């Protein structure tokens, strides 16, 4: 969002803004509230208002943190069944939502093209047990779109996920005026081609905004303390407070309540392994 004096304008993308004076996290991104210095275009940003939430990741080369979007109510984690199902990416984005202050929404798209197989259903049952049931959708048949609209209206939502899972196709159905370009899967790899190259927001009928994010192949984790990472795993966090050591990493320490919960089956082995992978990654920064 932009404001300048008494004028309020929706910021859909930071294109055309003079922003050289802003560095790192201070650079304006989609969803920001900014004060503009009056004058001719391109606009000059004078101030960025405090953000209530952010979507953060580490850059592709691991050198710095990137703010991808700001002031989100919801992070729509878009995935698809079969070869495009990636629980590892889902877990990363769940942590990013928890750390950044957005509510996660799991969307399994393209359900008209591939059946939701047993392994995917098992993962979906895990997420449902954590209070994150998935919306099964299809931009082609319309399956699940009414439920998705109901979850998005009046909210600022970013759609994030791998390339080729149908984020732009969903957006084009939900916001016909968006007219975002879509692409097919690579026949050789079964992965998506990068069609959306920049984050851009679109007003949602009934209120709110949808932000179409560029597809990701990797979502680098920012540096996190173990307690911050554990907070992104909703089934681990309640057990973490019972560990003997306040700085427990839940990887090797004695009397670790989290590892005991894994042994009892209260935390699934699959999700615990995911936590350990992210622990190694975030500790490396």
Task: Please give the order of strands in the largest beta sheet.
Answer: 9-8-7-10-12-11
Overall average pLDDT: 83
Helix-strand pattern, N to C? Answer: EEEEEEEHEHEHEHEEHHHH
User: Distance between termini?
Assistant: 32 Å
User: What structural class do the secondary elements suggest?
Assistant: alpha/beta
Proportion in helices: 25-40%
The radius of gyration is: 20 Å
Report on this model:
It is globular and about 60 Å long. The strands form 3 sheets. Strands 9-8-7-10-12-11 form a 6-stranded mixed β-sheet. The chain has a 4-stranded mixed β-sheet with strand order 2-1-3-4, with no helix packed on it. The chain contains 8 helices and 12 strands. 26% of the residues lie in helices and 19% in strands. With 285 residues, it is an alpha/beta fold.
Task: Please describe the structure with a list of short key phrases separated by commas or semicolons.
285 residues; 6-stranded mixed beta sheet; 4-stranded mixed beta sheet; 19% strand; globular
């Amino acid at each position: 969002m932009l404001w300048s004096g008494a004028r309020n304008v929706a910021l859909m993308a930071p294109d055309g803004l003079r922003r050289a004076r802003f560095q790192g996290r201070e650079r304006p991104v989609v969803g920001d509230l900014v004060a503009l210095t009056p004058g001719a275009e391109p606009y000059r940003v004078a101030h960025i208002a405090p953000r209530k939430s952010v979507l953060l990741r580490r850059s592709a080369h691991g050198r710095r943190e990137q703010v991808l979007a700001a002031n989100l109510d919801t992070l729509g984690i878009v995935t698809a069944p079969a070869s495009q199902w990636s629980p590892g990416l889902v877990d990363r984005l769940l942590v990013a939502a928890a750390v950044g202050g957005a509510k996660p929404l799991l969307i399994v798209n393209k359900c008209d093209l591939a059946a939701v197989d047993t392994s995917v259903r098992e993962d979906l049952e895990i997420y449902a047990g954590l209070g994150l049931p998935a919306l099964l959708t299809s931009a082609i048949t319309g399956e699940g779109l009414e439920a998705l609209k109901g979850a998005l209206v009046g909210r600022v939502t970013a759609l994030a996920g791998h390339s080729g899972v149908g984020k732009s196709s969903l957006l084009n159905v939900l916001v016909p005026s968006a007219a975002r370009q879509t692409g097919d899967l690579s026949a050789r790899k079964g992965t998506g081609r990068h069609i959306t190259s920049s984050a851009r927001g679109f007003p949602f009928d009934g209120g709110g905004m949808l932000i179409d994010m560029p597809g990701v192949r990797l979502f680098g984790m920012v540096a996190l303390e173990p307690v911050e990472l554990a907070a992104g795993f909703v089934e681990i966090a309640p057990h973490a407070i019972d560990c003997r050591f306040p700085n427990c990493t839940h990887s090797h320490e004695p009397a670790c309540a989290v590892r005991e919960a894994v042994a009892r089956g209260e935390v699934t082995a699959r999700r615990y392994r995911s936590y350990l992978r992210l622990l190694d990654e975030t500790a490396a920064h």
